[in-house]
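In response to reviewer comment 3 from the previous cycle, which asked for concrete evidence that the modeling workflow produces usable outputs, we include below a single protein chain processed end to end. The sequence was submitted unchanged, and the resulting structure tokens are shown without manual editing.
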Amino acid sequence: MAEPSVAEANAKTYGRFPFDDMRDFDDARRGFVATADDPVVTDAEGRTVWDLSAYEFLDGDCPDTANPSLWRQSRLVARHGLFEVTKGIYQVRGFDLSNMTLVEGDHGVLVIDPLICAETAAAALALYRRHRGERPVSGVLYTHSHIDHFGGVRGVIGQADLDAGVPVIAPQGFMHHAASENVYAGTAMARRTAYMYGPALPPGERGQIGAGLGQTTSTGTSGLIAPTLDVTATGQRETVDGITMVFQLTPGTEAPAELNIHFPGHAALCMAENATHNQHNLLTLRGAEVRDPRVWAQYLTEAVRLFVGDVDVAFASHHWPTWGRENIVRFLTEQRDLYAYLHDQTLRMINEGLTPLEIAETMRMPPALERAWHTHGYYGSVSHNTKAIYQRYLGWFDGNPAHLWEHPPVEAAARYVDFMGGCDTVLDKAQESFARGDYRWVAQVVNHVLFTDPANSRARSLQADALEQLGYGCENGTWRNVYLTGALELRSRPVGTPTVTASPDLMSALTLEQLCDALAIRVDGPGSWDTELTIRFITPDRPVTLRLHNGVLTHTIGTPDPSVPDPDAEVTLTEADLRDLLLGTTDLATLTGQDQARITGDSSTFTRLLGHLTTPDPDFAIVLP
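The workflow returned the following structure tokens.
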């Protein structure tokens, strides 16, 4: 259960914020049409990938083991079904981490952001069709390059639709960022996603209650269909099936490739993920490129200037809409002020010499913003967003020479524990700190014992207890999930990586340049110091040369680099077969045996190259060394 200090802190939350303000609940219910009869969405093998009933417990009173503010947000986000936003625009909410929006055209329906996986997307579209008729999908639009906004596309259209001319619209740069984010550091991101969204945690009062932005991630089959129409400029106007759209490009905000959409015929504005009912991440806990809060704020100002004079409803790819021009202006400008304030005040404190930890503890939000529920840190947080801004401008080093060359975790832990009198002494003192309610310190200090002695059962148990109490007190959904998943792994078993983002579609979407980069990332540098090899692939359109030298795999696509030695081997094949070869879905022996490839020179060259590649571990340790 929650310790008394955590329960008391959670209870005080009721006095800090206007819990009697029910406008969000009214808006979250507004326009409700119906929900699915069967709450369980399954894949082809019958495995559950989403359960609409999993969060019914949130209709009860908030327990001591949850922050009441997060409980309130989770109740709102867990509402599921088909909702009318305005005449001709519908949303399916609560069927995944994100929303699917459907805009009715002259003959069919435009699908915006088809969720994470094909199974939930198909279920959402089926719900819409059951109540609005069997309208064909006349277009698909991805608002940005995160997988919860495109991964389910194969649940709403297929190759026949593409052959019939159904357009797929996305912002400029979408394919590059959608592919690279899920591949370059994809293994590490996927592992950390298991902590951030807590899919291994059982939903319940002491487990997973949501991630602030949505409940959690679905676990079905993700895919990707390449866009057929790029949005390249703000003000670009496109019409699909009689639906007129005016776009605003917003690169560098919530995603490196993102856009907002004005529907002048509906007096509606889609804000993608640039303005949602929470403070967003400037750097996600799973890891990503640091986002720019300065330009984020500027794009929100631009959206108000460009569109709000002709808008009666604003909606996004998460949460519920905002109706009424005055409310929309207040919502968007408060969201703008949120990111601008975080940016400007963090820089002010940076220039006063404060470190990331000091800024995170010092930053206080203006009372007017703190009173607005939609600025709360349910997903991003003031604490980790200020650290992200510091990282964006100054990097990892805080300027203190003592932090320039610290020992790595295991070596430092052994020294700390030795200085503090050994493991038993540290744990005795940590137990006293736990009794005083200082769970942050317990987690910090017991971590040294665990990195000194990972098998210490007393340390594992105490650390799990401390992480659990920290989770129970969190307003931030992702922080709660991280703490509770850490406790779960310490107590029982590794949770692994439940969500797979590097799907075959995503891998096949990589350009040849990106495929070569993906191989280079896997080279065992020290094991390749003394290796020198060059292989050239001859395709009908262009040669591709790979060279391993000094532990670095470099590539040249097109005219060979004159500084590169003559190849040890040349392989003649099609570019499609080369892609399969680099992806590992075929091998040279198969290709040559089927007369699809011809090798001249040393036929072992490619095999030797593969011998220098490592395989990343998707289950690497996080709470233990």
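The mean pLDDT is 96. We consider this sufficient to address the reviewer's concern, and the full set will be provided in the supplementary archive.
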